Fold:
Amino acid sequence: MSAALPAPRDERASDRFAARGGLLLTGHPDGRVSLVQDALLVWTATGTLLHAGPATNEFPDAKLVAGSDRAMLLAGFWDPHVHLPQLDLAGRHREPLLTWLAERVFPEEARHADAAVAATAARAFFDALLAAGTIGAGVLAAPFEVSAVCALEESWRRGVPCRCGPSMMDTHAPDALLADTEEWKTIQQRLFGRFAQDAAIVPRFVLAASDGLLACCGEMARSHRARVLGHIAETTDEVTEVLRATGAPSYTEVYERAGLLGPRTILAHGIHLTDAELGLLAFSRTVIAHCPTSNLALGSGRMPLEKLRARGVRWALASDVGAGPELSLLHVMRAALRVHRGQARLAEDEAYWRATWAGAEALGYGAERGALEPGRQADFLVVERAPARVRTARGAIRALIERGAGEGWNGLFEAVYIGGRRVL
Structure:
């Protein structure tokens, strides 16, 4: 028999709030994913969870603000690699990486030098991000200070955890998108002064960043203990050109000699890496953002998950919009499960864990977010109708993916809560 629901009360008179669900799905820091039936979340006015588990009468004064016994509650998604100025390009083009950048991305990003365009784009991006159920992200802005400022201001206004910086380039791109190393250093210092560690360092990729810019980025990352967002070994053509242009033994060693590898660095793709490079990434505890939908769209290849596992490389799932066609991490999970089938072991529960806690941890929020456990923040999604007749976490995740594929990826969530506050 179900425990009694918390009695509704005037919100101003209570400092405890609750959400009810027929199902509760969450990952945990140790890699487990649990499914609780007849579940209850209870949190304080500051968003700290007091209870995340089976329904109980222990909190009779908590005000019920979300869910029902027919709903599903689940930990929200975290996207460690997504391009804000490319949202309008998502799903519209399928072509090789370097062509995609030159013909689609750079012209689109040039528009974001205008403050009005940047502000409008930031609002639209966070609207779409929350609709997809993503409650935290590593965001690559356009190569302009104003683009990063608008994104970070919007994330702060909405309470969305976010690391963001301008995509820095000083070579091999249109002049309007370039700045020299000293200009980028000055811009980045202003961002640190205003947004502290939410300001990420984003050297776009090796072909668009000189040795001097990369070294400067490495120095700033060390001195500010900042997150680094970037790309590595996405296509064979890119890798060949990097080795030719730099004379380095490998793509990864370019980042190593610049001081850009480490536990606060997230590099997207990692498809075409040697065993020695994977060893460097594992030793430095660098994170790979695995972007299967983007890799499929641009024909980049399959990330060799089995090799990353063998070497112990950290990784999380990411959308990489706009090459990725959808912001939905459920959509990304489905692609990951399909692309690795018969090649590497990956089940639904691990895919969910890689799209939630693993991303939060990579972005530096793992101590207090990414899982629904007492002491952590109440960051969760509400599905109005829980999947029927499921008894396992894998079954619940499979049912959500099937529903998203059939009904649309961005209409699944009735409500989104971050830190106990409804944001959608």
In short: The radius of gyration is 21 Å.
